[in-house]
Amino acid sequence: MVSEGAAGRSTRTPRAEGALRTIAADQDSPERVRRVLEQALVFAGAAFAALYRPGADGELLYLAESAGLPRTLCGVRDSYPVAGRAPVAEAHRGRPVWLGPQDLAAQPQSRRVPSSDFFLAALPVRGDGGGCLLAISESPLGFDPEDRACLGLVADALAVPAPPAAADGGEPPPGGFSLAMDTGRVRVGDGLLELFGLGPDDFDGRVESLLSLTVPEDLPSLMSVVEADHMTIGDRELEFRVLRPAGPPRWLRLRGRLVPGGEGRPARLVGSVVDASTLRSDITDVARVQRLAAALATAVTVRDVGKAVVAALRRPLRADRIALAELEGERLVVTVLDPPEPEDWPELWRAEWRTEWPDAPVRTMPTLAAALREGRAAIWPAGSPLETALAEVGPGGLAVLPLPAGNRMVGACLIGWDTPHDFGPDERALLTAAAGLAGQALMRARAFDAEHELVGMLQRQLLPRRLPRLPGAIAVARYLPSTAGLELGGDWYDVIPLPDNHVALVIGDVQGHSAGAATLMGQLRTALRAYAVEGHPPDVVVSHANRLLMDMETDLFATCCYVDVDLEQGSAWCVRAGHLPPVLRHPDGSTEIAEAEGGPPLGVVRQSDFPMSPLGLRRGTLVALTTDGLVESPESDIDEGLERFAGQLSAADPTPLGPVADALLGKAPRSDDVALLLMRYDGMASRPLRESWTVWRVPQAVGHARRFTRRTLRSWGVTADMDAALLVVSELVTNALVHTEGQVRLDITLVNDRLRLAVADASPRTPAKPTSIGWGATGGRGILLVEAVSAAWGTLPVSGGKQVWAEFVLRD
């Protein structure tokens, strides 16, 4: 067969012979057949080359290996009948076949191999069970005599017995694997499990067990390999990362080919996996770009993008300096420098140094400005005439990569070498691809930074700036944003002072991490505060907030825990809406996770119950409310985290409350937002005296109210300001009876030396103080009298109405 092209022998045929002889000497290489086929591409001008071998049933010829174009583009099938009239079957029976486009078009459709204007060659493979070499050329002249001679050499080289593979059920070679496509069972060679960090006893033979150890971002590309419909036989290679117990993920490289099945035999994916870090340092440009893309996929800030570019380019390119800068108007603001020391950069850069990194006007570097205008990577070898600011960055060679995003430039990357550097075509292509990836990532990072600043501002404005001072209690709160993605979310807390020495402790979490979640958090916090101040009980407050969220027609929901604490009695009522229960630390150091019934999250079910659960507080009891970011992590579920939180609270000294909160947050996983609210109940030094009277609508109602007030004050030992207090009661009760309908209630409270008189009615209308009253007016003086004789007065909205109050500072 070699003699067919002997007359036209040139230097190409001897070179092919030498290459094939070198490949044949390595009989143990699992890649020998593929490397032999690749010589048909190099020396015979083929666009596709494949080896077909007869199956165990002897009825079909199966595609064993291929190189070049994907077989689907050439119309090549996985198998052909041995007894058929297809070119591969004819060649297997010993007759070489040479067909052009017209010959292929004249054949029946069922026998056509390529589906375009290709030239086809099918040559028999002698020995080793037979088979044939199939080659396809896209050249307009097809295979010339020397091409045919080189194909004959390739066919002869394929006749040498191939090393055993796992496609027929044998054991994989070292570092290799064999995956059954129908069951997902995989056999692995020695050393492959070690790359995944598994021992022989830890592996169950399922491919899913190996896939679960990969970095999630790399899983989609890896899954495409194990799906037969997406595999091109013999031409798949990719790099991926596997997680390790300690340290960064490990890069592995996979090469695989799909071997079709036969009668009673499934298709199998066979190949090898090696540690990419042990390969040659000048890895392929595709692998470099793949690694850069993987790193940029997880970069969320501008600084992260710069670090990813430096890590992906400096070492492989053996560069001495890399700078990545944002373009802001006419200034170039550097975000990452490697090396970071100022003395390693030109004088102009040091003169423009600002805090951590420098920035400089683009006009001071005209060459750089021109490169940014053109938008293409610019490369200058050693000795190029450049301005000093650029020449000193790379005296041995300089590459400037404008970073495009959309229709504009968002930055630039400068790469410099100290010694003369030779820029090859592959390196130029790598730099261009890297610039495109970095530009898009930089644009995403800038948008993310802007959103982060916006959400941060919202968070700072919507959370309480300071907590109120409480009678008989101390409260502290902490908030920490997540470090995963750096987005602020909807966690919030609030401390709401209420009448009669009550206080509401509120903590909640809006679903999601965005400006929308932070805005909704602010709306909910305001609504809960308004409902609480109106005087509603805890279950009604939460129920109103739930209906409000349902009416807002948002896709987000929220969880909430609301605790109403009576600071006089040392008791509390708790309402939960899908949130964690409070944790109580008792004075003896024991802790208790409150058994408080819970309702669904807010915004899920319109008609839902939010039951109230009682909490008993003793002096020194610490009430802790938190969000799930503090107690939940990928390593443990929320119940375990809550028990761990209770243990940490038990070991803490609650006397200085601020350090306790800081210590608890110091152990937070920070994979989510964290809000923490602590209140230590110390008890009130002096408990207020309280009495109430329901005013009946009878002619003597005002007199009854005055007599009740006089008896109450005398029983408390109050004699000063008696007349003024009785006057205020008369005016407030009269106004309520005359101007409102429904129930009227008189409340009297004495706290130390302050006497408070309050009348509640069912009208929400606030009494107005007249601006002027004529001598002949018969009314309108009541509020003026109240203002004149009391130290302070005002109104409060209460559930279904209002409360008008006045206070006196009692004289000794």
TrEMBL record:
One of its GO terms (molecular function) is protein serine/threonine phosphatase activity. InterPro entries: Bact_Sigma-Reg, GAF, GAF-like_dom_sf, HATPase_C_sf, HATPase_dom, PAC, PAS, PAS-assoc_C. Keywords: ATP-binding, Hydrolase, Kinase, Magnesium, Manganese, Metal-binding, Nucleotide-binding, Phosphoprotein, Protein phosphatase, Transferase. Gene3D superfamilies: 2.10.70.100, 3.30.450.40, Histidine kinase-like ATPase, C-terminal domain, PAS domain, PPM-type phosphatase domain. It catalyses: O-phospho-L-seryl-[protein] + H2O = L-seryl-[protein] + phosphate. Pfam families: GAF_2 (PF13185), HATPase_c_2 (PF13581), PAS_3 (PF08447), SpoIIE (PF07228). It is an enzyme of class 3 (hydrolase). Its EC number is 3.1.3.16. Residues 236-288 form the PAC domain. Signal peptide: none annotated. CDD domains: HATPase_RsbW-like, PAS. Primarily acts as an independent SigF regulator that is sensitive to the osmosensory signal, mediating the cross talk of PknD with the SigF regulon. Possesses both phosphatase and kinase activities. The kinase domain functions as a classic anti-sigma factor-like kinase to phosphorylate the anti-anti-sigma factor domain at the canonical regulatory site, and the phosphatase domain antagonizes this activity. PANTHER family: STAGE II SPORULATION PROTEIN E (PTHR43156:SF2), STAGE II SPORULATION PROTEIN E-RELATED (PTHR43156). This is protein-serine/threonine phosphatase. It comes from Streptomyces fungicidicus. The lineage of its organism: Bacteria, Bacillati, Actinomycetota, Actinomycetes, Kitasatosporales.
